[in-house]
Amino acid sequence: MNFGLRLKLSIMMVLQYAVWGAWAVPLASYMSGPLGFDGASVGWVYSTTAIAAIISPFFIGMVADRYFSTERCLGVFHLIGALFLYLASKTGSGEVTYLFSIMLLYSLCYMPTIALTNSLSFRNMSKPDQQFPGVRVFGTIGWILIGWVIGFKLFGLEEISAQPLLMASGLSVALGIFCFFLPHTPPMETASDVLGILTKPLGMLKDKAFAIFVVVSFLISIVLAFYYQHGEPFPPCHRGSQPAGASDHRPADGNDPAAIPALVHLPPRHPLDHHDRHGGLVYPLSDFSTGSVWPVALIGLPLHGVCFDFFFVTSQIYVDEESPDDIRASAQGFLALVTLGLGMFIGNLLAGSTVDSATVDGVINWTKVWLVPFGGAFLSVVLFLIFFREPVRKNNRKHDLCC
Fold it and tell me: What is the rounded distance in angstroms from the CA atom of residue 33 to the CA atom of residue 101?
């Protein structure tokens, strides 16, 4: 892969996750503050990404795999998404239904692009298992940078306002335009019929290893929902009486740029299941280490970064290697449906009910709260270690657009 291609893919990843990170953390404070939303309303607005991840992947997979080039799909969806983000910034006090509707429409545009950026990257790499981590790390860098901008209150963001939504809208416009300059990635000439595109990702579940991988990914996504929903209100992630905010969560994200490139330097013959074990084993440790004081949280947060990288990035590589050439985008969409869709949706509901059940007289028993994701992570590791056996490939699949 030449430098020019690597640069384009890296910029794509920076902008892809900067757009999401610009609104994902500060939106909750904006809704519960100036907009006056209650907790349930905030939760439903955040659930729009999970709902979109459930609805959209197979449709966009059919479109990207069969009819349109991937880079054009990305450009159109990000430009339309920018409009919805701008409309979201115009939400008035108490307009829950309006914001929910707008964010759902936006999420239907954005969530498919996660799978499509992965698919585009894989199809333009000669050795995705070695090259993808070095490109994907720039997505984390984009998330971190925009988090610092908002967390440190730069560029006039001293007060809680709709500015993060406007910033995300502007970034989405920039990304939408940039996508049209990405490498041309046409639909597969051997694309399946529509029914095949819908059924083949499900057909992959006949493989025992792939089925176990899907189950474990689903469980880990439920665990991840606890971190995203309760990471900010968790007392150790506060400084004094103030919420941690975007910048105080950087111990977790700041560890990612070091962890993702480390994937490339693992032994070449190191089985993919070992890579995933690294992430899976650390997940229960990260939940268990999230104790009652800030220094202990400093242990748990960086561990979360390692978890996310080793498990989810290698999972994306694994799906790309296991899926037939004509349904790569659909297969990545299926992974997004299971993790960002079903897993995160159920995880968000479970996380909310867990906090309610662990609250007595207005005081949350955080030990009981974190024992739930700890148990889920531990179960996923046990299932993975016992049942997952990656088949030995005689020949690595050759990708159609190699550089």
Answer: 20
| Residue 363: strand pairing partners | 360
Spatial contact of 129 and 86, defined as CB atoms under 8 Å apart: no
**Residue in this structure with the two tokens 């949350």, named with its chain if needed:** 364
Q: Classify burial at 48, counting beta carbons within 10 Å of its beta carbon; exposed 0-12, middle 13-18, buried 19 or more.
A: buried
Give 345's contacts (C-beta < 8 A, 6+ positions apart).
Answer: 47, 50, 51, 53, 54
In this structure, the number of other CB atoms found within 10 A of the CB of residue 275 comes to 23
Q: Note the pLDDT tens digit of each residue in 86-142.
A: 999 999 998 999 999 999 999 999 988 988 898 899 889 988 878 888 898 899 889
The identity of residue 271, as a single letter, is P
Helical axes 314-322 vs 128-151, angle rounded to 10°: 140
Q: Which two tokens stand for residue 43?
A: 């939760």
Give residue for tokens 């995705």. Answer: 128
Which domains occur in the chain, in start order? 3-387 (1.20.1250.20)
pLDDT one-digit tens code per residue, 304-327: 556 666 677 778 778 878 888 777
How many residues appear in the chain? Answer: 403
Mean pLDDT across 43-65: 77
Q: Which residues pair with 359 in a beta bridge?
A: 364
CA dihedral for 158, 159, 165, 169, sign (positive or negative): negative
Locate 154 and state its tokens.
């730069």
CA pair distance 231, 235, nearest whole angstrom? 9
Buried-exposed string 105-119: b where 16+ CB fall within 10 A, e elsewhere = bbbbbbbbbbbbbbb
Specify the pTM: 0.72
Contact in structure between 166 and 86 (CB atoms under 8 Å): yes
Which are the contacts of 3, defined by CB distance < 8 A and separation ≥ 6?
A: none
Extract the tokens encoding 401.
């657009």
pLDDT at 398: 43
> Rounded distance, CA 317 to CA 62, Å?
20
